[in-house]
Design brief:
The model has no long low-confidence stretch (mean pLDDT 89). The chain has two helices and 13 strands; from the N terminus they run E-E-E-E-E-E-H-E-H-E-E-E-E-E-E. By secondary structure, it is mainly beta.
């Protein structure tokens, strides 16, 4: 599945006619419908036939899903698209989360601060989840100010982290 990119996760049903809520990871939430058929981890294919925005998610109708029970059965299903269906983005400041995971993070002095293990967003912007060499996990804001240079080809992020972010917590015994 390394050539598949997660675009969304099916949530609870919406209504009684088979519509589902989908949490999307696309820049434009409605854009998830533009990628054509999506697949799940079992290889099943899903085609979005209708989509509309709703608060934090989109509400979609999937081809062949016509009852609330069928929609409920899909709750939690991850929806993927092959990487080659994603257009090559010309903006050097935009990255797929999948491309950031595994990148080494280096401080201003070149010292390795850790490795990116995930990209999180709790509502205030993206955060890099970085595992330090001593095994701790640190969340660093993923902004141009804190990650000014990113080289996906060499799997390296040059960081200017906030003062003290990577310092060990001496209060813990």
């Amino acid at each position: 599945m390394s050539d598949l990119i997660l675009l969304g996760i099916v949530g609870a049903p919406h209504g009684v006619r088979g519509e589902v809520r989908i949490k999307t990871y696309t820049g434009d939430p409605l854009g998830i419908a533009d990628y054509g058929p999506l697949t799940d981890s079992k290889g099943r294919s899903f085609e979005i036939t209708d989509i509309r925005p709703a608060k934090e998610v989109v509400v979609a109708r999937l081809k062949g899903v016509t009852t609330r029970e069928a929609a409920e059965a899909l709750n939690g299903t991850e929806l993927f698209v092959p990487r080659d269906k994603l257009s090559a983005d010309e903006d050097e400041d935009e990255f797929l989360h999948a491309d950031l995971i595994g990148c080494h993070v280096a401080g201003p002095d070149g010292a390795v601060l850790g490795t990116v293990t995930g990209v999180e967003n709790y509502g205030a912007g993206d955060l890099l989840d970085i595992k330090t060499p001593d095994g701790r996990f640190v969340l660093m804001p993923f902004t141009k100010a804190f990650a000014p240079r990113i080289d996906i080809a060499t799997r390296r992020i040059e960081a200017e982290p906030p003062l003290g972010l990577f310092e060990p917590d001496d209060d813990k015994q």
